[in-house]
Design brief:
With 162 residues, the protein is α+β, with helices and mostly antiparallel strands. It has helices spanning 3-12, 15-20, 51-67, 138-161; strands at 23-28, 31-37, 71-82, 91-101, 105-114, 119-133. The protein has one domain (3-134): Hotdog Thioesterase (Thiol Ester Dehydrase, Chain A, Roll), CATH 3.10.129.10. The protein has 4 helices and 6 strands.
């Protein structure tokens, strides 16, 4: 499994991340760095970037770092400390560094900075290894997509039957 394939898979299947404009800058085993251009819609009534947007960046970059081992993961727990408001920032950067890698639990510290280098937030995110490898080929990916769609259709049919 290559890091390029992991980036390709995660980027293609994370439409929310795409909508926010989050891009991967660097990835290596147990580490990731992403950037997110600040959009006008990201501001809260106080004129700073909304905490939920900052948290999303932290979770996305941590998820990339967790996936560098070739397995699909999901967020198990997360906390964030907002240290400075992101006012007038043009770009936010998230950098995830591995703290612990266990068989099923992975922990990352994530630092969110702005384009001036100001530390905006610090987060610790814990991921659970689902034990499902990231598909190595597009054919494997297509098979997974078909299976997901079939399961979703079965779930909708079961709900309608109730």
């Amino acid at each position: 499994m290559t890091l390029e394939r992991i980036i390709q898979f995660r980027t293609l299947h994370n439409r929310f991340m795409q909508m926010l404009g989050i891009r991967v800058l660097e990835v290596e085993e147990g580490y990731a760095k992403c950037e997110m251009p600040v959009q006008e819609d990201f501001y809260n009534p106080n004129g700073s970037v909304h905490g939920g947007v900052i948290f999303t960046l932290a979770d996305c970059v941590g998820g990339y770092a967790a996936a560098t081992y070739g397995m699909r993961c999901t967020t198990l727990d997360a906390n964030i400390s907002y240290l400075k408001p992101a006012i007038g920032s043009k770009v936010l950067y998230g950098e995830a560094k591995e703290v612990k890698r266990g068989r099923t639990v992975l922990v990352f510290d994530v630092y969110v900075t702005d384009d001036t280098g100001l530390l905006i937030a610090k987060s610790t995110v814990t991921y659970y290894n689902l034990g499902v490898p990231i598909p190595e080929t597009e054919e494997e990916e297509d098979n997974l997509k078909e299976k997901r769609e079939k399961n979703a259709a079965q779930g909708r049919a079961a709900q309608q039957a109730e």
